[in-house]
Write a structure and sequence with these properties.
- The complex is a heterodimer of chains A (198) and B (559).
- Chain A has 198 residues and is α/β, with parallel strands linked by helices.
- Chain A contains nine helices and ten strands.
- The longest helix of chain A is centred in the middle third of the chain and has 11 residues.
- Chain A is globular.
- By secondary structure, chain B is of the alpha+beta class.
- Chain B contains 18 helices and 21 strands.
- In chain B, the strands form four sheets. In chain B, strands 16, 17, 18, 19, 20 and 21 form a six-stranded mixed sheet that branches. A five-stranded antiparallel sheet of chain B has the order 1-2-5-4-13.
- Classes of the chains: A alpha/beta (198), B alpha+beta (559).
- At the A-B interface, helix 6, helix 7 and helix 9 of A face helix 1, helix 2, helix 6 and helix 9 of B.
- The complex binds protoporphyrin IX containing FE (HEM) and iron/sulfur cluster.
- Iron/sulfur cluster binds next to loops of chain B.
Chain lengths: 198, 559
C-alpha cells in the first residue's frame, strides 16, 4: 500500500526518489555518537559520489548537489517534466533558486527531514512558497510522521511520504489537529484576528 | 486579565484531545520513546527522578483566583498536594502520572489554562515584570503585547521544532524587571518623544553552560512590527542555528559566531521581506486584547490610611513586613504585596494546595481576584488597598506566606536540584535551607540590605546563579557533590555575569563560606551601601582571602 499523501488524501506516487548510497554507520560516528545533524555548509556528498550518481529513466527526484553539478546533462529531463530536486536538511533553498530563472520549472521539490525534530524544512518551505513563489508540489520526505503534518501543511508542504513503518491513513487525522490556528502562515495566510471578528 | 474567546478555548480543547491521542499511541507502543519525547516536551512533560514532571504554563505570570484554586485542586488530586513556582513564572508538578496528564490538561483547559510549549525546542512561555500594569514607573503595559505574543507563538508552524528552546521576555519599564538581557529575545517597550510606542530588541542572551548577555539588534521597531521582527530573528535562527550539538544550539551561539553586525544584517534582510505582511499588528487587535487589561475598578482613596499607620506603629512585625513585602502602586491608596514562598525550611517556590487556596481567597477579597508569579518564585497580590494590608498580612502570616525577606539574603532563587531533577550535579534545596537557617535573624538580615542569592544544581542554570549577587552552582567531582561560589552578578538594567571566586566547597561548608563573604561585606561597607556595590567597589580579592585564607596558603584544589 502506498504511504504517500498528496494534499490530504492517500495517493499514488509517480516519482522515483533517488538517494545517495548508504554510508556505513561507522563513518557517521564522531566523538562516539552518531551525527544526527550536519552543520550548515557541510559537504553532503563527495564529488565522486555525485559524478557516479545513477540517473534511471522516468520521473526522478535527485539530490540538490547532483542537480547543481550535472545541470547540463539534466536540463533536457527537466524540460521533459521528469526532474525534481530534493534538499538535505542543512541545504539552502537559495542555491536552487539561483540555478534557474523560474523556480516553477520544477514539477516537484522535496525536503528531507533527516530527523523528526529538525524543523529547518519548515522555514525553507515557507520561503519557497511566500518569497520565491513556488507553486508546484512540495514534498516532505524522510522522518515524516503524523504529528508534524499539521505544521508541514501550514508551512506550504502539499505532499508527504510517510515513514514506511507508519500508517498514512492514520496520519491523515493529523491534519485535523487544530481548526483555527492563530498565526498567518502559507496555508491559512491571515491571522485569526483578520479572519474573524473576535 | 485576558479571558479566552471561542477561538482560544477551542485551541486548548483541541490540544487536550491531540495530547490524549499522542499519549494513547505512546502507551500502545505506536510512538517510540524518541518520537514521543518532542511531543511530550512541547507539553511541558519531562521524565524526571521520581515521576514525570509537568510544567504548567502561567503566561506572563498572571493568574486568576479561580485558576489558582484549580491548580490547588489538581495538586491534590493528581499530585502530592503542592506545586513548585518556577523562575519562568510557571508551576511545576513533581509527581503526576503519565496516564493522568491528559486529564490534568482537560482540567486546566476548563479554567483557560494549558501546558503548551512550556518545554521543548519551541517558543516558550512569554515572561514579564510581575508588577506590570501597577508599577508607578511604567512606560507601556507589557501584558497585552505578552498575550498577543502568547497567541502568536502557540503552535507557530514554522518554529515548532527549533534547534533549541527559545525564550522571549517583555518589559515595559525603564527599569528591567523581566531580565530581558538574558533571554533569546528581550523586548523592551518604550515611547519616543512624540509618545509613539516602539520596541527595543535584544537577542542572543541566555544563561546555561555558556552565559551571555544579549546584544541590541534594534534600538527601535514600531510596535506594529514586533511580531514580524521576531519572526525574522527566528527564521534566521531556525535556518542557521547549529543543530549538531545541543550545547551550541542556542541563538546566543549564532549571534556570537556571526557577530552582532552580521546577525543584524541578516535579520534586517529577512525583515525587509516580511515587514508589513499579514502578521503586522493592527490597532484594532491591540485594542481588543488591551481591553482585557483595563485598570480594575479602583476606589478613590487617600494617599495615606490612618488604620494602616496605626497598625504599623503598633506592630513591629507588621512594620517589618511592609518594609520588605509591600511595593508602590500607581493608584493612590493601593499597594502591591509580595507573599514570600521563601520561609526557612520550605523549598523556595513551593506552595501547598492549602496555601494556594488561601492566596486565592485573599486575591478575591482584596485584589480583584488576580495574582502574579514573580521570576524570583514568589506570589504577588498586585492591588491591595492600604487599609487592608494588615488583614492580608495576618492571614498570610498564619499561612506561612509573610516572611519579610523579599530582596534579602534568604529570598533565595533555587532550582529543584538533585532532589527532583535528573540532570542535577548536586542538590540545591538543602543548600538553600542551610543558608536560610544560618541567617534566620531578621534584624540582621534587614541590616544587610538587598542581597540576591541564586542557586542552580547544574550548569543549566535554572536557578539563575550567573546573575545572582551571590551565585551557587552545584558541580560534580568524582561522583560527589560540590558547590562553586560566584560573586558580582546582577539582573536589571545593569545585568552582569558573576565571577567564580575559586575552588568549590562541600555541602556542609557552604553556609560557612557565605557567612565569611557576608563578614567581609559588613566590614567593608560604607553607610548603607548594598552588597553588590561593595563587591563592585572592592573587587573579589578581599572575599577570596577571607574564604580561602591568605593567597600564600595554597590548598589542594578541587573544582
Ligand atoms: C526539574 C526539571 C528541570 C529540568 C529537566 C530542566 C532542564 C533545563 C535545561 C536542560 C536547561 C538548560 C538550557 C540551556 O542550555 O540553556 C534549563 C535552563 C533553565 N531552566 Fe530548567 N529544568 C528544570 C527545572 C527548572 C525549574 C524548576 C526552573 C525554575 C525554577 C527552571 C528554569 C530554567 C531557567 C530560568 C533556565 C535558564 C536558561 C537560560 O536562561 O538560558 N527549570 N533547564
Ligand atoms: S539547574 Fe540543573 S539541577 Fe537545577 S533544575 Fe535546572 S537542570 Fe535541574
Amino acid at each position: 500500500m502506498s504511504n504517500f499523501v498528496k494534499g490530504t488524501t492517500l495517493s499514488a506516487n509517480e516519482w522515483n526518489l533517488l538517494r545517495y548510497p548508504v554510508v556505513a554507520e561507522a563513518e557517521q560516528k564522531q566523538a562516539g555518537k552518531t551525527v544526527i545533524f550536519k552543520v550548515t555548509g557541510t559537504e553532503a556528498a563527495s564529488a565522486e559520489t555525485i559524478a557516479a550518481f545513477a540517473l534511471p529513466a522516468g520521473k526522478i527526484i535527485v539530490p540538490l548537489k547532483v542537480w547543481l553539478a550535472r545541470r547540463e546533462e539534466l536540463t533536457p529531463r527537466l524540460a521533459a517534466g521528469e526532474l525534481g530536486v530534493w534538499f538535505e536538511s542543512f541545504e539552502l533553498i537559495e542555491d536552487l533558486i539561483a540555478s534557474v530563472e523560474d523556480i516553477n520549472v520544477f514539477p516537484v521539490i522535496a525536503w528531507d527531514f533527516v530527523r523528526f525534530a529538525d524543523g529547518r524544512g519548515f522555514s525553507s518551505a515557507a520561503l519557497l512558497r511566500q518569497r520565491y513563489g513556488y507553486r508546484n508540489e512540495l514534498r516532505a520526505i524522510g522522518d515524516v510522521l503524523r504529528d508534524q503534518l499539521f505544521f508541514m501543511r501550514r508551512c506550504g508542504f502539499d505532499a508527504y511520504e510517510l515513514r514506511a513503518d507508519r500508517s498514512a491513513q492514520d496520519a491523515l487525522e493529523g491534519f485535523k489537529d487544530f481548526a483555527e490556528p492563530y498565526q498567518a502562515a502559507v496555508h491559512v495566510d491571515q491571522p485569526v484576528w483578520r479572519r474573524h471578528a473576535r | 486579565m485576558y479571558r479566552y474567546d471561542a477561538y482560544d478555548q477551542r485551541l486548548v480543547d483541541e490540544r487536550v484531545a491531540q495530547f490524549r491521542d499522542q499519549t494513547r499511541r505512546y502507551l500502545a507502543g505506536q510512538l517510540s520513546e524518541d518520537e514521543f519525547r518532542p511531543l511530550r516536551l512541547q507539553n511541558g512533560l519531562y521524565i524526571q527522578r521520581h515521576a514525570p514532571m509537568l510544567r504548567i504554563a502561567v503566561p506572563y505570570g498572571l493568574l486568576s483566583s479561580r485558576q489558582l484554586r484549580k491548580l490547588a485542586d489538581i495538586t491534590r488530586r493528581y499530585d502530592r498536594g503542592y506545586g513548585h513556582f518556577s523562575t519562568r513564572q510557571n508551576l511545576q508538578l513533581n509527581w503526576p502520572k503519565l496516564e493522568d496528564v491528559p486529564d490534568i490538561l482537560a482540567e486546566l483547559a476548563s479554567v483557560e489554562m494549558h501546558a503548551i510549549q512550556t518545554s521543548g525546542n519551541c517558543i516558550r512561555n512569554i515572561t514579564t515584570d510581575e508588577f506590570a500594569g501597577v508599577t508607578p514607573d511604567e512606560v507601556v503595559d507589557p501584558r497585552p503585547i505578552a498575550e498577543i505574543l502568547r497567541q502568536w507563538s502557540t503552535f507557530h508552524p514554522e518554529f515548532a521544532l527549533l534547534p533549541r528552546k527559545f525564550k522571549i521576555a517583555v518589559n515595559g519599564n525603564h527599569e528591567d524587571r523581566a531580565v530581558v538581557r538574558v533571554h533569546d529575545i528581550g523586548l523592551e517597550f518604550l515611547r519616543n518623544e512624540a509618545g509613539e510606542v516602539g520596541v527595543k530588541v535584544w537577542a542572543g542572551g541566555g544563561l546555561g553552560r555558556t552565559p551571555i548577555i544579549g546584544e541590541v539588534v534594534s534600538e527601535w521597531i514600531d510596535w506594529q512590527h514586533v511580531i514580524t521582527y521576531c519572526e525574522a530573528i527566528l527564521r534566521v535562527y531556525n535556518r542557521h542555528g547549529r543543530r549538531d550539538n545541543s550545547y551550541k544550539a542556542r541563538i546566543k551561539i549564532l549571534v556570537k559566531a556571526l557577530g552582532i553586525e552580521e546577525f543584524r544584517r541578516q535579520v534586517e534582510a529577512e525583515f525587509a521581506h516580511t515587514k508589513g505582511g499579514a502578521m503586522t499588528l493592527t490597532q484594532a487587535e491591540l485594542d481588543r486584547v488591551a481591553a482585557h487589561f483595563t485598570p480594575h475598578p479602583y476606589a478613590t482613596l487617600p494617599e495615606t490610611d490612618a488604620s494602616f499607620e496605626a497598625a504599623r506603629a503598633a506592630d513591629p512585625a507588621f512594620a517589618a513586613w511592609t518594609k520588605r513585602c509591600v511595593h508602590p502602586h500607581r493608584v493612590p491608596g493601593y499597594r502591591a504585596v509580595t507573599l514570600s514562598l521563601k520561609p526557612t525550611g520550605i523549598a523556595p517556590g513551593d506552595a501547598t494546595a492549602e496555601q494556594m487556596e488561601i492566596v486565592a481567597n485573599l486575591a478575591d477579597e482584596h485584589s480583584f481576584g488576580e495574582l502574579r508569579i514573580s521570576h524570583e518564585q514568589n506570589l504577588i497580590l498586585a492591588d491591595v488597598p492600604l487599609a487592608k494590608l494588615h488583614e492580608v498580612w495576618k492571614t498570610a502570616r498564619a499561612a506561612g506566606l509573610a516572611t519579610p525577606n523579599i530582596g534579602l539574603l534568604t529570598d533565595i532563587i533555587c532550582c529543584p536540584g538533585g532532589d527532583f531533577c535528573s540532570l542535577a550535579n548536586a542538590k540545591s534545596i538543602p543548600i538553600a535551607q542551610s543558608i536560610q537557617e544560618r541567617f534566620d535573624n531578621l534584624d540582621y538580615l534587614f541590616d544587610l540590605g538587598e542581597i540576591e542569592l541564586n542557586i542552580s544544581g547544574c550548569m543549566n542554570s535554572c536557578g539563575h546563579h550567573h546573575v545572582g549577587h551571590i551565585g551557587i552552582l552545584g558541580v560534580d567531582k568524582d561522583g560527589s557533590e560540590w558547590y562553586q561560589i560566584s560573586l558580582g552578578g546582577s539582573q536589571g538594567n545593569d545585568t552582569r555575569l558573576a565571577q567564580v571566586i575559586g575552588r568549590s566547597f562541600a555541602a556542609g561548608d557552604v553556609a560557612d563560606v557565605i557567612e565569611k563573604i557576608i563578614g567581609v561585606f559588613v566590614e567593608q561597607r560604607e553607610g548603607d551601601e548594598r552588597f553588590i556595590d561593595v563587591v563592585r567597589r572592592i573587587g573579589l580579592d578581599p572575599f577570596k582571602h577571607r574564604v580561602y585564607g591568605t593567597p600564600a596558603k595554597k590548598e589542594a584544589a578541587h573544582v
